[in-house]
Amino acid sequence: MSEVIQGDTVERDYEVESGIVMLNIIVGEGQAGASVVWLDNQVIAKGDLGPVTLGPGAILTGRVLGIRTIALDINPMTNRTAVTYILTGGATELDVTLTKDAPQDGAAVPYAARFPLVAKGANV
User: Fold this and answer.
1) DSSP secondary structure string, 53-108?
2) Number of other residues whose CB lies within 10 A of the CB of residue 58
3) What mean pLDDT is predicted for residues 58-67?
4) Residue 121 banded pLDDT, cuts 50, 70, 90
5) Distance of CA 77 to the CA centre of its chain
6) 100 forms bridges with which residues in the sheet?
7) Residue 60 belongs to what H/E stretch?
8) Rounded distance, CA 70 to CA 83, Å?
């Protein structure tokens, strides 16, 4: 199920099982962007990322996935920016899009996401 949030931050628990958990980050609206991804306090990926393999749910339970993304307003047709975070491999797919307008042409818009990884059936 897809969720759209007007804003630049999101925090959602993500239920993991035994499968391989994957993260995909999409910077939309024709803008450019880059991200830093970490598990707990360890950086695991950075840059203009394709799908990132986080690992099996069994070893991810109890950890926190954090993401910082910068969307750069390069599209001359709009100042709107958007970043979509998609997590797969858990109990369900998580698909959340954050949207925010850049304050001026060429501005950078920071986004932040936090996804505590919890065991399926935990109180979320």
Assistant:
1) EEEEHHHHTT-EEEEEEEEE---TT--EEEEEEEEESSSS-EEEEEEEE-SSTT-E
2) 11
3) 96
4) confident
5) 25
6) 81
7) helix 57-60
8) 9
